[in-house]
What does this fold into?
Amino acid sequence: MDFDLGARLRAVRELQGLSQRELAKRAGVTNGTISLIEQNRVSPSLSSLKKVLDGIPMSLADFFALNTGPRPKIFFGRDELLEIGGGAAISYRQVGHDLAGRGLQILHERYAPGADTGKAMLRHAAEEGGVVLKGELEITVGDQRRVLGPGDAYYFDSRTPHRFRNLGDEPCEVVSACTPPSF
Amino acid sequence: MDFDLGARLRAVRELQGLSQRELAKRAGVTNGTISLIEQNRVSPSLSSLKKVLDGIPMSLADFFALNTGPRPKIFFGRDELLEIGGGAAISYRQVGHDLAGRGLQILHERYAPGADTGKAMLRHAAEEGGVVLKGELEITVGDQRRVLGPGDAYYFDSRTPHRFRNLGDEPCEVVSACTPPSF
DNA sequence: GCTTTTCGTTTAATATCTTAGACGATCTAA
DNA sequence: TTAGATCGTCTAAGATATTAAACGAAAAGC
It folds into this structure.
């Protein structure tokens, strides 16, 4: 665990002015269980933790979202972004050279026949969308997949895994936008 | 449990395109454990659930806060783009109908010959850019002016006054992006 | 056709969690 | 001082979760 579950539960319980026994009674568990959890001597089952939180009451989502303060900027161009290098098969022509301080990245993309952004699907914290200009492009986002033709468009949260492939036999052109820039 | 833990985990896992075994390997648990959890035949210990989510990766907070609402539309056929402010001379076809919560607006624009966004130049707090697909477009930004042709592109801070005009005798097409949405 | 791989599931054995109950410490009231 | 109440902790026994291995089904290669 990357956080102190026991301390978190204890803090929440004491904030409510509840004793271990009182909370245990409300939750339908024994006081010993709560004691052990608060000492981090066991890793409670979800059913137990849920019962305990119901006795406070507090949702699991709220419990885990506690005290997290300003969300750390994870996912920040962290992985796979350059793996797109389907090599010569895919070319990106970026509008503008310096992305520093920008909130928006615009690309004119060209996918050669058979070009593929890769099997390990891309993930980055942003939103992106685009319009297909020429050719056909198969786009997979999460468990949804569709082949888009000229004039068709897409838009999705970039955190869901996605993949682009040109399944046709002619080059495919796309103008895409992404915010914030991920390259 | 007031929600289907097993189904939630399965949905998250499959959205990543991971098999039970692949995820188990990443998480440091056995595939059987994941199978049993997804069938709700056990209530996993928090340590186990944490390990599993680390293999995705996803935080506990995000997992329990997962949006169970309807999934947003991702793909848009060429006839499904939303017509905006459709003057006869200029048509804006927006990717996606609902901008609420979005950080990015993408438009497929068409300027008829002679079309003009107006003498009183536009100003809004955002950044925007685009790529010209067909025809020619005169763009004025502040005291700079230029005529762009197919493949040419632009990018500027929307707070500086700007104006678009199609001076040619054929229609002009542009794909543009703007953040945050200004309509 | 056949083999090989991968998929999710199941089961017996093991590891871990939860309970019931007891323990000492602390506080209050008689 | 004493008895009673309440606190958090601890431990053995029972309940549950996890593992390791095997299973049949389905897809992929040959």
